Amino acid sequence: MNTPILSIKNAVKRYGTVNALDGVNLDVAEGEFLTLLGPSGSGKTTLLSAIAGFIGLDEGTLALRSNDITGKPPEHRDFGMVFQGYALFPTMTVRENVGFPLKIRKRPAAEIKKRVDEALEMVQMGAFADRMPSQLSGGQQQRIALARAMSFDPQILLLDEPLSALDKKLRADLQWELKDLHQKLGVTFIYVTHDQDEALSMSDRIIILKDGAIQQEGGPNTLYDRPRNRFVADFLGKSNFIEATVTGGSGPTFHCESQGTPFDLITDEPCEQGQAISLALRPERLRLGLPGAELVPATVKQVSYLGERCQVLVVREGGEEFLVSRPTWKTDITPTPGLQVSIGWDADAPVVLAPS
Ligand code: ADP
Ligand code: MG
To answer: Quick one: which ligand is closest to 85's CA?
Structure first.
C-alpha cells in the first residue's frame, strides 16, 4: 500500500469492562471502498465514531496522511458522514440541508449554490431541491443525506449502516448507486454494515470485526474462499464444518478421516499425521448424488427453494447435518425429505481453519 490515507494504530476503547475496541490496527488506502463488517456489538460504530472524532480513544493513534489527528475535534477532520436513520434537519429544505456543511464552513453563497446543485445532480435529486425532508421517501432522504455528506468534497466518507432502514429492493438499487458514486468520485469510503451480502457486493476490502478485534481482512473473494477461522466462515456466507484427523500424506495432498469416512484433502496449510483439524466446506461445494455415487451416505431432511438455487439439508448416519446448495436447473435427482442420497466434495473444497 502507498501512504495510507488513514492509519489506525492499536485503537482501544473501553466501556466499563467491555472492550468496544480491543487493539485495532488498520491502514486505509486512498480511494478504496473499505467495509467494516461484524455482528451487532462488534465495535463497528465505535471504530467509525473514533475515526470521525466523536469519541476519544483510551489508547492508540489515528493519522491522516501521516499527520496525527488523534486529538483533533470532528469539525477539523473534514470527513463526510452518513449515519443510520438519515437524520436530515426537518425544518430545512433539501437545498438548505445539503448546503449546511458549506454554510458552517462559511463558503460564499454562489459557491454553495453551485456545489449543492452538483451534489443533488450526483444523487439524481436535482428536481427535489425545494422540498422539505418530510415530503421525501426513505430512499430519497438517504440520497439527500449522501449529497449533504459529499457537498464539501470530504477526504473520506464515513457511512454507518446507511441503507439498513430501507426495504430490500431499494437497498439493492442504492447499493449499485453507491458503488457507482464511489467510482465516479474516487473518494475513500469507510462503510459499516452487518449485512454480509452488502459487504461482499460493494467492497474492495472487508474488515471482519468481533468483540472489538479484527478477525480477518481481505478482498471479498479471499474472505469467502479462504476464511481463517470458524467465526469468519460462519459469519460470511454459510458453511459446513467437519472435524477430521490427518492420517497420512504430505502436502499439498493429505489423507484424512472423519467419522470413519476416509477422504483426501488438498491444502497449502501444513498438516501433520495424527493432527486433528477443523474444516469449513461451503454448501455449493458439496455434491448431491444417488446412494453410492458419492462418498458419504445421507438422508434428505429439508429442502428450501430459493429460485435460482435450492438448499438441501441432509443428515448422515450419526446425526451430523450438512447443507448442500445446488442450482435448481439440476434435475438428476429431485431432493425431497426422506430421500436416500450421498454427498461428496472435491479434495480442494474444504478450507483448514485456525482455532478460534
Ligand atoms: P456495533 O456498531 O458493531 O453494533 P458498537 O460499536 O455500537 O457495536 O458497540 C460495541 C460495544 O461497545 C457493545 O458491546 C456496546 O454495548 C458497547 N458500547 C458502545 N457504545 C457504548 C456506550 N456509549 N456506553 C457503553 N457501552 C457502549
Ligand atoms: Mg453500529
So the answer is: 2
